[in-house]
Write a structure and sequence with these properties.
This protein is mostly helical. The chain is 48% helix and 9% strand. It is built from nine helices and six strands; from the N terminus they run ααβαββαβααααββα. It has a two-stranded antiparallel ribbon with strand order 1-4. It has a two-stranded antiparallel sheet with strand order 2-3. Strand 2 and strand 3 form a beta hairpin. The N terminus is likely disordered.
């Protein structure tokens, strides 16, 4: 997933006849051109984002309890297309149904996230990172997050760094190897690291 999000940011040397600009300034402008930012209102989750969520969540036909003890099914969905909550006693869902549930969930998440970030501009890579976080942690967590506060102030790098704070599950710090056992939460940490790396690469 990290490689999918990462855009080729190979730097180009400043033109030899560039007598009025510094090399660093030229490189900064070049990077900005590679990762342009757009008003959040016109962005939508990319195919890469959807497949990334599928890869991270996996697929389980039968409802199960996630690490937070929430009933979950399909590709990490906790609600059905109509918004009703998944119950542990519900029947299995097919892969096709799981895909529809994921896309419906992401669509609703996008509308909520855009409402929480009025006037914010993001690159496509950033948008995909935050919608992945939104899908994983939920609306309330994003609303109160440091990322949202930093993005509203225009501090994009600080927002990326704030992603690293969300490494806890069931009271455990998932970045610690001592919590990586068979019933541990290493996956939470590796997904957090991917988000951070993809976010920084999208600047």
């Amino acid at each position: 997933l990290s490689s999918m999000f990462t855009t080729d940011t190979k730097k180009t040397d400043a033109p030899k006849n560039c007598t009025k600009c510094e090399n660093n300034k030229f490189r900064k402008e070049n990077v900005m051109r590679i990762n342009p930012k757009y008003p959040i209102a016109i962005l939508s989750a990319s195919v890469i984002a959807i497949f990334g969520i599928k890869a991270e969540e996996g697929y389980r036909a039968k409802p199960y309890h996630d690490i937070g003890k929430v009933a979950t099914v399909g590709h990490g969905s906790t609600v059905y297309e109509d918004g009703s909550k998944v119950k542990i006693t519900d029947p299995p869902v097919s892969r096709e149904r799981a895909d529809k549930m994921l896309r419906a969930h992401v669509g609703k998440d996008e509308a909520k996230m855009k409402a929480m970030l009025p006037g914010v501009e993001l690159s496509q890579g950033e948008y995909d990172v935050y919608i992945d976080f939104f899908y994983n942690f939920g609306a309330q967590k994003f609303y109160t997050s440091s990322m949202r506060r930093e993005l509203l102030k225009g501090n994009h790098v600080a927002a990326c760094r704030a992603l690293l704070r969300y490494r806890f599950a069931a009271g455990r710090d998932c970045s610690r190897p001592s919590n990586w056992g068979p019933r541990g939460c290493k996956g939470v940490w590796t997904r957090t690291e991917k988000r951070y790396n993809n976010c920084m690469a999208a600047q």
